[in-house]
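[step 3/7] fold_predict: job queued, chain A
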Amino acid sequence: CISSAASDVYKRQVDKLTEQGITVLMATHDMDYAYAWADEIVLMKDGKVLCQGAPEAVCRETEKLKETNLEEPALLRLFDRLKARKIIEATGKAPRTWKELEQLIG
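[step 4/7] structure written:
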């Protein structure tokens, strides 16, 4: 485990690389970070691909996430609850960042 400060430094470095057009391939169990950051997610178990695709699509595969001891990102869980309670009306793709969710709430 790395500290929050070290994690922030790491994330800034990854952002710098991608801004330079460098492709970054990352392995992580942090689904919140993967959902917000990745263009594509590959969910694997025992060296085999369970599913692959856009972040929202893969992160909605709750049964496959459970198979790998992962959870749907907190942002998606909250977004779905807010929609179910009609606190927000959202169409289209789910927000990828907390700031985007905040903008939907108003």
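[step 5/7] annotate
The beta strands are 41-45, 48-53.
The helical segments are 4-19, 31-37, 55-59, 62-67, 74-84, 98-105.
exit 0
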